[in-house]
């Protein structure tokens, strides 16, 4: 091999060919630029819709006499709950909850749905806890703009600072949005949430009773199943039955509700964001809907690590005030100067051609 190289072209020529290539690659990298995504208009519309929904929810909250806590909710979104209430299931991160109120998350969901190749009329299944009402709004905003069909199952229980105010869970939030014609979506079903989806181990002794009553009074079908394995399978069948002959094209998990997220070590390390080719699927009956749908080849949108989602997509952490619509890396994509790329390839080609002709 060494003799063949020497017989074909001098090492000094190869050195300069490599230098041309490296300099060209550096120039290409230095001249890259950001431009709006191919679905920028849909992202803007979804973000505007989420912003409008926040305004309606804030108005409704004040209307029923629940004041805003400026210390917890400096942007006055109306969807930041309290630390401990009868609905609080687990600890929660206030920074993450406030970060998720950014309407740019609706633009992020448009991005995920586009990358999953969803089309108008496609059906998606959504499993959510009450922990991140902002992300539910973001998802529904993207759904409406892209004209998708959502099947939403939500739990009442919430981690700290989520939709954990007993008089103002996500149920009345959604009702107010439907009344104002922001959305026209209803819960497919509701559950208690909390440990094993049975509101066990809560902070208050009467929590389970209060949560069960809220679920029963919601008007949605109440899922109250002791076994997580049976709960998961029941939800799968409910989604399938409601979708009829339409396939579920994406499953969206919002928060860490056990039936959706699972109760296995593999759930903890499940990737965040859009997951097309997921990790190894555990052979466990409590693996959750994220793995059940992955096993069927359905793309997963996993919305849990909010800081990670924000950093990865160029969105600010705990912004005050909330950014203007259109601000943030999620609305942009990196592009390269194609003319420069072709020029570098051309120069490299002609140099090698010249080098071969003059190798002697």
Q: Provide the number of structural domains.
A: 2
Strand content: 5-15%
Point out poorly predicted stretches.
1-6
Molecular shape: elongated
Q: Biggest sheet, strands in spatial order? A: 5-4-3-2-6-8-7
What helical percentage do the residues reach? Answer: 40-55%
Output the keywords.
alpha/beta; 14 helices; elongated; disordered N terminus
Overview of this structure, please?
The protein is of the alpha/beta class. The chain has 2 domains: 2-33 and 337-357; 37-328, no CATH class. The protein has 14 helices and 9 strands. It has helices at residues 2-8, 11-30, 40-63, 94-99, 104-115, 133-146, 170-179, 207-217, 228-243, 258-261, 265-268, 289-295, 306-312, 338-357, and strands spanning 33-36, 123-128, 149-155, 189-191, 221-223, 248-254, 273-275, 300-303, 332-335. The strands form 2 sheets. It has a 7-stranded mixed β-sheet with strand order 5-4-3-2-6-8-7, with helices on both faces. Helix 7 links the parallel strand 3 and strand 4. Helix 3 (40-63) packs across helix 5, helix 3 (40-63) packs across helix 7 (170-179) and helix 5 (104-115) packs across helix 6 (133-146). Mean pLDDT is 91; it is low at 1-6.
Quick rundown:
This protein has 360 residues and is α/β, with parallel strands linked by helices.
Write the layout of secondary structure elements.
Layout (H helix, E strand, L loop, with lengths): L1 H7 L2 H20 L2 E4 L3 H24 L30 H6 L4 H12 L7 E6 L4 H14 L2 E7 L14 H10 L9 E3 L15 H11 L3 E3 L4 H16 L4 E7 L3 H4 L3 H4 L4 E3 L13 H7 L4 E4 L2 H7 L19 E4 L2 H20 L3
Parallel strand pairs: 2-3, 2-6, 3-4, 4-5, 6-8
Antiparallel strand pairs: 1-9, 7-8
Helix pairs in contact: 2-14, 3-5, 3-6, 3-7, 5-6
